[in-house]
Design a protein that fits this description.
four-stranded antiparallel sheet; Nitrate reductase; single chain; Double Stranded RNA Binding Domain; alpha+beta; 2 helices
Length: 89
């Protein structure tokens, strides 16, 4: 069995900026307080059954269970529309 690999080796030059922008958008879309922690990671799956690259967003709001959101897109290709759809209940 193979597990997803974090895409650190293939991060583009703007990867850090893209992650920061996604975090900003997530905070605004979910109306999160400043003390909520948001993690954004691009994951590459080596298993042929996987969709390839996906962006995983974890939202850790104090007093609540951690919420995970997945978008079937690379971080650099993530659109605001796809992000909004992924965060919808």
């Amino acid at each position: 069995m193979r597990f997803g690999l974090f895409g650190r080796g293939k991060r583009e030059a703007g990867g850090t900026d893209a992650a920061a922008e996604v975090k900003r958008q997530v905070r605004a879309l979910l109306a999160l307080p400043e003390n909520a922690v948001i993690a954004v990671n691009e994951i590459l799956c080596a298993d042929p059954a996987c969709p390839g690259t996906e962006t995983v967003i974890l939202v850790m709001n104090p007093g609540e269970k951690t919420k995970a959101f997945k978008v079937q897109s690379a971080l650099a290709e993530l659109t605001p529309e796809a992000l909004t759809q992924a965060l919808a209940p």
